[in-house]
Amino acid sequence: MKIPHRDEVRVGQELPPLKLPPITRTTLALFAGASGDHNPIHIDIDFARAAGMPDVFAHGMLSMAYLGRFLTQWAPQTHLRHVSVRFAAITPIGARLTCTGKIAELTERGGEALARLEIGVIDDKGEIKLAGEALVALA
Amino acid sequence: MIDTRHIGLQLPVVTFEVEKGRLRFFAEAIGETRPEYLDEEAARAAGYRSLPAPPTFLMGADFDAGTTTTLLETLGVPIERILHGEQSFTYHAPVCAGDVVSVEARISDIYSKKGGALEFIVKDSLIRDAQGKTVVEARSVLVVRNPQEKSA
Predict the structure, then answer these.
(1) How far is the alpha carbon of B91 from chain A, nearest alpha carbon, in Å?
(2) Which of A106, A120, B1, B123 has the smallest count of CB within 10 Å of its CB?
(3) Among B149, B110, B144, which residue's Cα sits nearest to residue A51?
């Protein structure tokens, strides 16, 4: 996989977005099992309603895992140095998510060229679900 | 209110084996279909020792060991009141199938906002390889939504 080169990237450049299929109950059941997060609020509608929610909703870490896919399709995972996110809004069943990002800064640390990316997950109405940043080492 | 004397609390160290089957299950769950995340030969061709653990995969170590459940019980927080507020990872070295890592976590902060309506629990984790070298650092912020008494 090609490593983005410092001479071939610029501040403001957008990364290719990652568009996800709609969130289903099956998505959440599989993610609960695979991630180990068995919190019933994400998989048991009776539990969710008793807790005052209208329905189950997606794990925040599912969206962050999508961001992991998004970042590693731009640069190999070996070059991902840091990723941090704030979970801004609940993601309901049926949500159509897209991962987006752009280069906010080109910098250097310990002799390594880095791109600081502003990243996010939005739904098809443009609501921000996750917002954060990542550091990726450049060639 | 959560007792702030829990700040500094060290959680039991957890050992977690990164298994190929679990990695493939995780890949399926997040819609990951690239061969280096599913097929060992493709992973080796991409320069990994074996299937790489995706960037957020190691959260599973704490869940499997019941650390999160124990933490909430210790702090007296019902699970239905928590939301994940923030999460970060800092990567020092790749983690691959076959690796056995240990997770050492502590509660580094507890604070409240909006007159106690929201409380925040900050957990910092060091994930180490079998040689004791830190391969990943993680920080989780959990938000606790407290029911508010209505004013008369």
Answers:
(1) 5
(2) B1
(3) B144
